Amino acid sequence: MSIKKNIKLDQINKKIITIVHTQADISNQELSERVGLSNSACFQRTKALKEAGYFVGFNTDLDLNRIVKNVLAYVEFTLEANNPKARKTFENAIKAIPEFMDCLRITGDVDYICFTCCSDTQALNELCDAVNGNPDLGIQKVKTRIILERAKWYLGYPLQKLEWLK
């Protein structure tokens, strides 16, 4: 969804964003009570924030271990060339592979780190080999870090600790 217009982020809109960000399934009635608006006013504000593109999407966190076999890993990629054309080629390839759920260009001795979910270590290895074996992607090095335990997981941005834009 593209941003159509900017909406003034007053205290109520900030509350709506903060609550909906971590509780996307909240009812409009409960949200309106928590932000101190009527149901109708709260619905209109939330709808306007959605239409303006402040909410990019809604997802549900799943307990994967209860429903599917899975291996989670971070895969680090170092490219042979770190120029805009090489980065764009690599990024487009990663975007087309659903097992790569997150891809971040970072600083340091690694160019990208990707969060990955596969059915098992063999599938993860095959995925990494396929990407690394593609000569068009210009990958110099791949390093895989399998996640052993989920001590803490992403539960939303710490909006209450961040400085809001004016």
From TrEMBL:
GO CC, one annotated term: cytosol
Keywords: DNA-binding, Transcription, Transcription regulation
Any one GO BP annotation for this protein: response to amino acid
Domain Transcription regulator AsnC/Lrp ligand binding: 77-149
Manganese recorded as keyword: no
Gene Ontology terms for molecular function: sequence-specific DNA binding
InterPro entries the record matches: AsnC-type_HTH_dom, Dimeric_a/b-barrel, Tscrpt_reg_AsnC-like, Tscrpt_reg_AsnC/Lrp_C, Tscrpt_reg_HTH_AsnC-type_CS, WH-like_DNA-bd_sf, WH_DNA-bd_sf
Domain of life: Bacteria
Annotated protein name in UniProt: AsnC family transcriptional regulator
Organism: Paraglaciecola hydrolytica
